[in-house]
Each structure stands twice: as C-alpha cells, then as structure tokens.
Amino acid sequence: MAQATPTLRPDTASDLLIDGELVPGSGGTFDVVDPATEEVIGQAAQADAADMDAAIDAARRAFDHTDWSRDHAFRAHCLRQLRDALLAHTDELRELTVAEVGCPVFLTHGPQLVGPITDLGYFADLAENYAWTTDLGEASPLGIKNHRELRAEAVGVVGAITPWNFPHQINFAKIGPALAAGCTVILKAAPDTPWCAALVGRVIAEETDFPPGVVNIVTSTDHGLGEQLCTDPRVDLISFTGSTDTGRKVMAAGAPTLKKVFLELGGKSAFIVLDDADLATACSMAAVNVLTHAGQGCAITTRLLVPRSRLDEAIATTKSTLETLGAGDPNEPGTMCGPLISERQRDRVEDYLRLAREEGGVIETGGRRPAGRDRGFFIEPTLISGLDNSSRVAREEIFGPVLVVIPHDGDQDAIDLANDSPYGLSGAVWGTDPDRLNAVVNGVRTGTMGVNGGIWYSADVPFGGYKQSGIGREMGEAGFAEYLEIKAVATPV
Ligand code: NAD
C-alpha cells in the first residue's frame, strides 16, 4: 500500500481507475466548470470506448478469478479502509465538491459528502454480518430425502451509472452495497461531476487494499459509454440513477442481454398540507425543501397541495420564506440555494418558467436570475400559482428551485392529486390528527413519506420509487439485496 497523497487535487494524467491503475483518458481531457462562477477550474480525464472496454474486462476478471466475492471479511476491511481514508481528506473533498457541484457547503456535512462516506461503514457491517446461507432443513421431493440450503451470492459485474446532483451520495449508494455484496464495479460518473468520482478512484488506488479490477472509475462527456455498459454481455447488472427518459433507454439497451436493471429515476413529489395543520410552519418547510440545493434533488417535494380555503395564506407564507432565504454563494455557511449545475440546466428551468406563464400561471415570486449576480447559473427560488395539476409544470420534473402550489378540497382530493402523476418517488404530509395523517400515508403511492417534517434519509432506509420513478430500492438491506442472486443447493441425506 502506497503512502497517503498530500493532495487530492485531480491530476489529469491519472484520473481514470482501471484494473487498479490510475491512467489518463484515451480521449484527452474535458473542462470542469464551477457552476457558481462559470469558471473552468480544471480538467477531467476523457475516457473513450476502449477505456470502458478495458474497465469492463478488468471488472470481469476480478470477479471471475479472485476470491473477492467469497471473502466477506476482506471486503468489510476494504470498505472501512476507504471510509477512513476519505474521512481523513474531508476538508479537501469539501472544497472540491462545492466547487464542482455548486452545492451549499452546509450539505457537505450531510448527504453531499460526510453522510455517504460514513455510510460505507454500514455496508461493511452488512458484508460481515449478512446471513449468507439459510438452512432450509430436510424435505423429500420424489421420495428422496434431501438437505436444502440457500446461498446468497454476488450478482457479478455491476455497471453503475450516476447523475450530478448528489454525486457522492449516489456513487457510494451504489459502490457501497455492490462491493459489500461481493460484486465488482465499473462506475460511470456524470459528465458534470467527474472529480467527485475521480478523487475516490485516487484514494482507492493509493490508500486502500482493494484488489485491481474490483473498482473501476470512468469519466467522460460521452453518454455512449453508459450505453456501452448497458449492452456489454460481460456486465451482469446495471445500477442506474438519472432521468426517467434515460432510464427507459437503459432498460431497452439491457434487454438483448437480459441484464438485471435497477433504476432510480425522477420525481414530482407532493407536499400535502391538511386543513388541521399549522399552515405557516408547513408552508415554510415546503419552501425550504424546494430551494435546498436549488431544487436539484429527485425526492424534493415540488407540488404544494394546500386547503383551497387557505390558499392565499399558504401563498403568502411560502413566498415570504423563499424570498427571505433566496439564492446565494454556496461557499457561505448560511446558503441553502446555490446555483444550478450548468447553463443547460438553467435553460431547462427557464423554459419551464416561460411555459408556466404561457399556461396562465402566476409567478408569485422569483422566476428570474437574481439581480446583481451576473456570473453563475443562479435562478431565484420561485413559486407558481394559478395552474392545476394537469399543467405541464405540475406534471414534469423541472429540477430547479420551483414550487407549484395547487389547492385541494379535502384529504381524499389531496391523495388523488398526489397520485395523479406518472411518478411516485417521495412525499410529505402535515397535519394534526394521527388517523388522517396515517390515511394519507397509506393512500399516496410513493417510495418514501415524511410526516410533519420526518426525515427518512439514512443508510438503513431503502429508497426508491413506485410507478415511473424506478425499479428496485437503493440503501438498506433491500438495496443490498439488489446486488445478490440466490442459489438453492440440495444434497441427499
Ligand atoms: P441523465 O439521465 O441525463 O444522466 C444520468 C447518467 O446517465 C449520466 O451519467 C449520463 O452520462 C448517463 N447516460 C445518459 N444517456 C445514457 C444512455 N443512453 N445510456 C446509459 N447511460 C446514459 O440525468 P442527470 O441529468 O444527470 O440527472 C438528473 C436526473 O436524475 C433527474 O431526473 C433526477 O430526478 C434523477 N435522479 C434520480 C434519483 C433517484 O434516486 N431516484 C437521484 C438523483 C437524481
């Protein structure tokens, strides 16, 4: 094992991790841009199809010809070693993450950095303590007495494809359980956040005992490398997080080789305020939720459903919170809403704001680039009213700090509105009566629900979507099981 590196700052001569070696991209490099300043802050390695081929080959060989998948204790050791090495680099990782992702620095103390690194320990514990075998006892099918046993085994080679919004959280939510289960991995990082992945590759290569080929990290602006992972017969499972449109392509590309496909996709989640709720608190929390990280979270609640009789009051409170918090420099500890990731993403949000106006919506606040910020991909936190649940801004994922407020006519109407969506990823409900709250939780078809501000995010809580928000679960034991096959073994006794 080599000495700890004094700095993690990416070195484009060695940004890819393939077969245990840090190597340059065969396609040269591409720019890494700070979304808060629009400045090019460095370069990332541009992998090409041959690099991806080498990464898949290395992962296949490591799975087929080493003990990795069977040595549970060694895997736990490597995961804990990676966690500890990354935690020792927290300050530098924090600085580079905020620069590359544009995320508010306060989030790096949780899901944007320290949380997911710490969670590697949870997956290490699973590797060590999981019930890898289950004794089913004896049975006599066809009159022959057999002893039966189930064995959980790693799926094999995993292609992990990730987006840019919470890169560490999503990269580790795939790498962690896949490696704990005994798989080998090729991580294809998002083109907007290559460093978050490359830095981990460097730490794995230089500061841990992971054997060559077990983890491979590939960065590129070419989405085709993701497709290559989906079509290559040497890959057994695709673990994908991204948009629902890309998820459909991933599923189709994996079909000819009947790949296991595990999808974490988009959302348009509802925040339901019941008529017995403390409306001011509830609406302020809905505002905070939608502006956090500029609304770039799949599970963020972007539809605010409020009692029709209290619509004006709800608009006033929500608007006031959005305006008070505003958008700001992500390096400031008090900032909750930083920039969007890219010009392309800001264009997309601005297109939706134009559409909202065309559809007859009222922009109650926001809807523009903040005054005085001529650099950075910022958008003011925005509240839209005057549209119903059939409008496109209420149905489609915008992925910006944009909240649509819609009146409801009682609990069942709120449930129906929440469910009137192609998505079913997350949701929230606020109220007083436990029976009514429980009925809403039961009625909404979605993978997670927060009650009166409840936070479900944690390594041991499975996360994922109903309907077109995905297939499968990430995190928790259910997420770990996505990376396992079950082998039934019978022996005559
Ligand atoms: P995206 O779908 O554009 O890209 C995601 C990843 O897929 C990137 O690495 C990209 O290079 C790759 N890719 C693109 N085309 C591909 C193809 N044809 N085959 C294989 N890979 C391909 O998504 P994005 O813009 O990076 O991220 C935002 C989206 O991610 C939003 O829709 C958001 O809801 C979703 N998301 C979902 C979750 C979840 O857990 N459900 C979490 C975060 C983000």
SS class = alpha/beta
Query: How many alpha or pi helices?
Result: 15
Q: Strand order, biggest sheet? A: 14-15-16-13-12-18-19
Q: In angstroms, what is the radius of gyration? A: 23 Å
Largest sheet: 7 strands, mixed
- Rounded mean pLDDT is 96
Q: Give the terminus-to-terminus CA distance.
A: 47 Å
Task: Explain what you see.
It is a single chain. By secondary structure, this protein is α/β, with parallel strands linked by helices. It is built from 15 helices and 22 strands. The chain has helices spanning 49-65, 72-88, 90-101, 114-129, 167-181, 194-207, 224-231, 244-254, 279-291, 311-325, 343-358, 392-395, 411-419, 434-443, 476-481; strands at residues 16-18, 21-23, 29-33, 40-45, 133-139, 146-154, 157-161, 184-188, 215-218, 237-241, 260-264, 269-273, 301-307, 362-365, 382-385, 402-408, 423-424, 427-430, 450-451, 466-467, 470-471, 484-492. Helix 2 crosses helix 6 (194-207) and helix 4 (114-129) runs parallel beside helix 5 (167-181). The longest helix is centred in the first third of the chain and has 17 residues, at 49-65. 53% of the residues are buried. Residues 1-6 have low confidence and may be disordered. Residues 161-165, 170, 188, 190-191, 223, 226-227, 230, 241-243, 246, 249-250, 253, 264-267, 298, 397, 399, 425, 465, 470 line the site of nicotinamide-adenine-dinucleotide.
